[in-house]
Amino acid sequence: MKTLNVVAAIIKKDNQILATKRGYGEFINMWEFPGGKIENNETKEEALIREIKEELDCTIEPTKFALDLEYQYPTFYLKMSCYEAIIKEGTPKLLEHNDARWLTKQQLNEVNWIPADLQIIDYLKETME
């Protein structure tokens, strides 16, 4: 079974988190934290910055390592490193997603998350104000 090594950004602004809605693939129309695959010879932080630039056309700054998680999907095994981040430059544009929302801690359960990302929600419920 294939293992995917990916990174995800927990982008924060004013006590809110950016959630994005998948616009393609197996999990279309489910919500996720943006990010993607780590390329060869790339650090996790570099991958995160590149992926957010590709997906949302803005520049982020990872500010804190949040958590590593692993999740077994039917067709692949996921290893994901998650980082809290802020937007340094630009405004998120939906290049690969079909929607985005800024969510407060109280709103985190209002969207249908991709299964692995539920572990990030647990982390946020413990750490967000």
Automatic annotation (TrEMBL):
Catalytic class of the enzyme: hydrolase
One record GO biological process: DNA repair
UniProt keyword annotations, A-Z: DNA damage, DNA repair, DNA replication, Hydrolase, Magnesium, Metal-binding, Mutator protein
Cofactor(s) the record lists: Mg(2+)
Reactions listed under catalytic activity: 8-oxo-dGTP + H2O = 8-oxo-dGMP + diphosphate + H(+)
Gene3D superfamilies: Nucleoside Triphosphate Pyrophosphohydrolase
Enzyme Commission designation: 3.6.1.55
One GO molecular-function entry: 8-oxo-7,8-dihydroguanosine triphosphate pyrophosphatase activity
Listed Pfam families: NUDIX
UniProt superkingdom: Archaea
Entry-linked InterPro entries: MutT-like, Nudix_hydrolase, NUDIX_hydrolase-like_dom_sf, NUDIX_hydrolase_dom
CDD domains: NUDIX_MutT_NudA_like
UniProt domain Nudix hydrolase: residue ranges: 1-129
Family under the similarity heading: Belongs to the Nudix hydrolase family.
Protein name as annotated: 8-oxo-dGTP diphosphatase
Taxonomic path: Archaea, Methanobacteriati, Methanobacteriota, Methanomada group, Methanobacteria
Gene behind the chain: mutT
